[in-house]
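Exercise: predict the fold of this chain.
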Amino acid sequence: MFDHMIMKNEFEQDFKNNAADIPYIKELMCPSGDTKRKYKGNPQECLYDIVANKHNGIDVDKWDYFARDCHNLGIANSFDHNRMMKFARVIKVHREYQICMRYKEKLNVFEMFHVRDIIFRKACHHNVKNIISLMITEALVLANEHYQITGKGSKKLKMSEAIDDMVAYTNLTDNILYELLDSTDIKLAKSRRIITNVLERKNLYRYIGKLSRKDGKPINADSLRKVKEEVERMKLDLVIDEIKFDYGMPGEDPTEDVWFYHKQAPDKAFQIDKGEVSAMLPDKYFEQEIRVYCKEKAKAKTAKSSLKLWIAGRKQYTFMEEKDEIDFDNENTGSQKKLINDPIHGIIELHPLCVKIIDTLEFQRLRQIKQLGCCYFVYPGASHNRFEHSIGKPIFDVTYACLVSSTRLCQPE
């Protein structure tokens, strides 16, 4: 994509006096052992670690998405990236320059990886979010043979082929869902139905529980593949989804590869034991969840019973049923309130009728309308939409109405 952008926009002229910058930028984005040898023993070597740190995962890419994602998700960010930057220092470690952290920042280092774990657990692998991801994936797979994207030389390509054509890949964005939704092609009817169900929160997959090994060890890839094949043969309309949680380096404590320095000896790097930080830090740095979903509500109970019988015949596995199953159909009948996390107002409780109104295509369209119109072309952060505003605004309505009412009682004149 970077090469395509340079050629299409004729940026070669801008780099003619610094031709080496193009491969260097690409190396920064995708560093390898070979490219880093170019600056071996040179302080510039650590520039790779600023952009994409392969030693321990501490880099500015994470710092920005921690701050930005937490703000937009309404999740508290307890990691202080500004403080981390102030106390970072380049020191030579075993003939290699590395970015080292001040010793007193050791807790902040651990907190960085903890925040990453929180984002993944609360948002990236939120149960309903994963259900929607699986359904959208199904919709795109069904549409792949029938929906085409224009590539280089006006060539028509499937979505799955766009990765090899940068002209087509440039046009492959989240908007594809709404293009499929607006299509009238009968061959895309199944995809449209799934996308509509997602937007209206109807007929979503049912989460029925988690599969795991009795000894607590992860289920390896080969065993999981066999489980999926056997479950598929049972024809229960079940979907098995593997979720992995780690601190960025599967199964490893990334802080073991972080180097520190003391104020009294700023040019001498050393490593620490996590016991120096706290005795309450984790002993394991990898967790696996095998979530099981049923595609149809009507089959969920039967599928769960059949799956439990299947697992009972296999002593190495155990099944944990979902104790707080969400019934989306009941939500849409107007019988349940709903709590949502708003980045401005925090937790908002929605009246059942509000839930019904929000889960309509007419209201969901507001997700595609920017609150500030074309301002997002000038201000990168102005990408918020009318959907979130329409949910948050009533909080001010209610608060202000209560304030005015109480003022009238105190000041009748």
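Check your answer against the key: The radius of gyration is 26 Å.
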